[in-house]
Sequence to fold (295 residues):
Amino acid sequence: MPALASARYGKDNVRVYKVQKDEATGVQTVTEMTVCALLEGAIETSYTEADNSVVVATDSIKNTIYVKAKEHPVNPPELYASFLGQHFIDRYAHILVANIKVTVHRWTRMVIDGVPHQHSFFRDGEEKRTVEARVTREGIALKSGISGLTVLKSTGSAFHGFVRDEYTTLAETWDRILSTDVDSTWQWKLFPTLAAVQDGVERFDAAWEAARNITMKTFANDESASVQNTMYKMCEQILAAVPETEVIGYSLPNKHYFEVDLSWHKGLKNTGKDAEVYAPQSGPNGLIICEVSRS
Ligand SMILES: O=c1[nH]c(=O)c2[nH]c(=O)[nH]c2[nH]1
Fold:
């Protein structure tokens, strides 16, 4: 006898733009985000018995995303995600969980002739700020993050001492290129209420800045023994810098740059200490993942 083991539904890829206009100065500030809202609760019969009376239409969920963006601040995204999720469990008695994901796209203010422009912006990279909220009547669980922050260092990275056996072809190296697309998350202690999220709301921007700075500073300055060890050092520092976090996570692809032997052409030296021209690889790539919590 089959049984519905789990179910959630809602609207994904809802693109939202909000402008804030300071009438006194003429300065405008913009936020663009992509929102996903998925609901859980007493919705089984919609799957098993074609009972749509328990279904808040995904079209209505999309409408709610826009309305809540109008009614509430969209910054920081942790606050907007909490308002939105809280709405669904307050408004519908049979909805037990609202899963909200907000992805914020970069619009950085232009500086023209040394002066910040009042209303013009540019996309300075595909890095995103993210938040995942799981809102229930027990509280609001928030996981904030950064994704798509592409970084590279041209030296200061080694990898040696790994298992050597009949499957190994990789040479040990004491100097290699290290490049990755940073995906980092920090899970907050459970907020018991929406008011607890609102109280001290500046913690969210401060944590994002700390995580981003720690990631870049550690990436740049660490004499890396491996991706594993460098990411662990990042996690340790974020736990120390943001006391309200419980778990720090990283998922880092190791984007390989291979040396190219050019000795076939007039004896050109382009390997080892003479390496200058490399072949960036699009795949396969390593993928190194960890989560670090307080002991
Ligand atoms: O930092 C690294 N960690 C690995 O686990 C690994 N494996 C590999 O082939 N290269 C690397 N680099």
In short: Helices lie at 44-48, 58-71, 77-91, 194-198, 203-221, 227-241. The CA atoms of residues 14 and 63 lie 10 Å apart.
